[in-house]
């Protein structure tokens, strides 16, 4: 298993689904030009896509008090950017169909992890800056896509047992992935996004999400650096090894403090989402 092999496999991936491609084309001319009625009709033309979107956004950790019963209602409440990323996330999952058990999750649980990251990003940061939260929460939803690519490669190799053992023992997922391939799964997400011509600024953010690369991080403008720091906080609180544990929330909260933001506000939001999630799963 080599990085070159993985890149070759990404390059050979087919286009996204028909509905996803049509919706992607709609976004090329800018969010302000989106025809909402047409967007709703395209989503509704794919019954499985519609069912998946409604199922996920009705999960209690998104915090809606009433059931969302239609795509039109979902677009109105979530906004066109987040609906776009819900469509892309579903299309990527359908294209890759990865076995995420090497990370200790079923695919459904991995999907929930991604939605928890997005929910925490939106509900926490909307109290700081709503427009930024609306921009970056969709990326939080699909930033882990590179792990699906990596999982596919590991499953095809003779490395499954060793990978699982080393993953369980590692303290830092990014360092583990980097030692394995020389790249993190977030960098694989960036390559995947490029392959499917997704939002260019999302690609830039993902390439430096391992902010230990200080030189690359400093090259970013102030706003993009802030986005990277926000996502780093989210992945600290919710990741493939820890989902809103006491320790992961504390570690994330310390990073919130370093940004000069309210730790109490972050912790309250994280705990509320954790309680909703565990109640939802009956834990």
Low-confidence stretches: none
Specify the structural class. mainly alpha
CATH topology: Hypothetical protein af1432
Beta strands, count = 0
Descriptive notes:
The protein has 283 residues and is an all-alpha fold. The protein has a single domain, classed as Hypothetical protein af1432 (Orthogonal Bundle), CATH 1.10.3210. The protein has 17 helices and no strands. Helix 7 crosses helix 15. The longest helix is centred in the middle third of the chain and has 19 residues. It is globular. The mean pLDDT is 87.
What tags apply to this protein structure?
Hypothetical protein af1432, 283 residues, mainly alpha, 70% helix
Which helices and strands appear, and what pairs or packs with what?
Elements: H1 3-11, H2 18-27, H3 36-44, H4 47-57, H5 71-78, H6 80-96, H7 107-125, H8 130-142, H9 145-156, H10 160-169, H11 173-181, H12 185-195, H13 200-207, H14 214-218, H15 222-237, H16 246-258, H17 263-281
Helix pairs in contact: 2-6, 5-6, 6-8, 6-9, 7-8, 7-15, 7-17, 9-12, 12-13, 15-16, 16-17
């Amino acid at each position: 298993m080599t990085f070159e092999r993985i890149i070759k496999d990404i390059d050979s991936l087919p286009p996204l689904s028909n509905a996803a491609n049509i919706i992607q084309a709609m976004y090329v001319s800018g969010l302000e030009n989106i025809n909402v009625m047409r967007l709703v009709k395209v989503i509704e033309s794919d019954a499985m896509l519609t069912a998946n979107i409604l199922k996920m956004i009705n999960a209690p950790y998104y915090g809606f008090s009433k059931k969302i019963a239609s795509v039109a209602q979902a677009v109105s409440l979530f906004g066109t950017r987040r609906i776009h990323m819900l469509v892309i996330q579903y299309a990527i999952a359908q294209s890759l169909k990865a076995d995420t058990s090497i990370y200790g999750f079923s695919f459904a649980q991995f999907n929930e992890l991604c939605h928890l990251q997005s929910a925490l990003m939106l509900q926490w940061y909307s109290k700081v800056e709503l427009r930024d939260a609306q921009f970056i929460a969709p990326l939080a939803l699909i930033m882990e896509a590179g792990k699906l690519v990596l999982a596919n490669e590991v499953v095809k190799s003779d490395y499954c047992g060793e990978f699982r053992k080393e993953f369980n023992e590692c303290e830092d997922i990014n360092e583990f992935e980097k030692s394995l391939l020389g790249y993190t799964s977030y960098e694989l997400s960036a390559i995947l996004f490029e392959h499917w011509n997704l939002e260019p600024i999302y690609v830039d953010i993902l390439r430096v999400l391992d902010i230990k690369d200080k030189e690359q991080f400093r090259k970013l403008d102030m706003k993009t650096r802030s986005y990277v720091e926000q996502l780093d906080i989210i992945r600290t609180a919710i990741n493939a090894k820890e989902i809103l544990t006491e320790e992961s929330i504390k570690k994330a909260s310390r990073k919130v403090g370093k940004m000069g933001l309210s730790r109490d506000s972050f912790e309250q939001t994280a705990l509320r989402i954790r309680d909703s999630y565990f109640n939802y799963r009956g834990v």
